[in-house]
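Kindly go through one protein, given below as sequence and tokens. The question is how this chain folds according to its tokens.

***
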Amino acid sequence: MFNQWLLLHSLSEMGAVDLGREWSCMTIKQLSFGNTIFPLLVACLTFTSGCSGDTSATNAGGTTGKRVIRIAIGTQDQTINTVTGGAVIREEKLLEKYLPKTGKYQNVEYQIEWSSYTSAPPITNKMLANQIDIGNMADFPATINLTTFQKKGNGVKTILISSLAYSPNGAGNAVVVPTDTPYKKLVDLKGKTISVPFGTSAHGMLLTALKNEGIDAEKDVTLVSQSPEVGGTSLRSRQIDAHADFVPYGELFPFRGFARKIYDGAQTGNPTFHGVTVRSDFAKENPEIVVAYLRAMLEANQQFREQPEALSAKLEKWTGVEKEIFYMFLGPSGIQKLDPRIQPYQITALKNSVITLKRIGKLDASANPDDVASWTDDSYLQQAMKESNISEQDVANLADTVIGGKDALTQEAIQEPKLAAQIWVAGDDNVLSFASIKNMLTKLQQLKSEGKTVSVAFVHDRDKGWKLFAQNSFYVRSGEQVSAFLLEKDAQAAASKAGATVASFQELQQLYALKSPSQALAVTR
């Protein structure tokens, strides 16, 4: 496999093949053809050459007589917000379930081509080259995608037809620093080097955050463009002082232990989202296929709401991103909302994207924020919802799923999600939920005494409800109630008001380790 990868990489450098598409193809073809390099490369090169959307199917005996429709979808497997438009549909074969097979599609053979990238620009490039029909991307890249087609599409445009996951306040984007550095807030980064993928939603978040904190992005800090992978490596090797990025890296890097979040995009209050764009010629010629894709996405959303732990575990295998991170973003009371509707949040995010991209020179002066609504068309989504018998209220209910049920320790009802906490025990299929942080800490001590390992513990910001890693949060213990905060300054303000002190997660654990199980069990919120 490694030698095949090197050979393909060499061909890519020479321009013979495109690595993003061929690596995906190689993985698929290897299952069928074994480990032989020659037939593997032939299969991959054939895959690339099949760029026309409508051809005749052939086999060893000649033409089958069936019309072939190519459906090429570009997604970002590691970008959690896109998985219900990409990885889940692909791996669960949901698109095949809904593709039309009657009428003009009665004698059709579908050629579904999936490709995954770490960022959106390659998706836009391949959409321009008519090698991808449907693309998943965030608000800033979508703005570039939509405006680029207006200038270079030769009459073809792209249309935003659906949202995937979104945050109404910008959560998901974040600034992180190496774990053992002294930086606690953005102002500490004056005179330092910050990397960020330029032209992304994270770049926009960073510029807004620096401005809000009175930091001049051109004079007070050094900004360099780095992809998530390079940014992570640079953090580990201390080549940079901080890294700003989009979903899921602001949580993934801290979870992996080499970074600590000092700024959350939610602090900007600016909405952000990932969505689905489609080439207008493909949508016009095959509206039923576009509807089928969106029906598959609706089912993927529902699967996540019905079995978040199980689907998160599957996604870890499919993408290499830990299941705990998927659950943190898309599980109940998660960082992101799974909502396919194009709402005012999405329109505002696109407008902000236009303004910021013009500011940094990624769009010319002719780009108008007031035009963004005309880039969208939710008629395909409305038809998909109708055919799947899903109402607007159904969609809203799925998007607003919060922690509920009974406390895993006391069996009391969980009534306040902001005060709730959760534990995922290593090896367990399901997450344990608690009505209070105190109950979670008590259970944590019991699990430790039983020799069990907790892979992650979640709490929620007392004021905003943001889902947080317990070990990276700040706490205020007032009487019998423990509240969590993302920011130390917010915790200090709450502590001052309550006449209490701010504690770390480690200090809280030490406090509850002193209690006997019977004493701890008697404590209620």
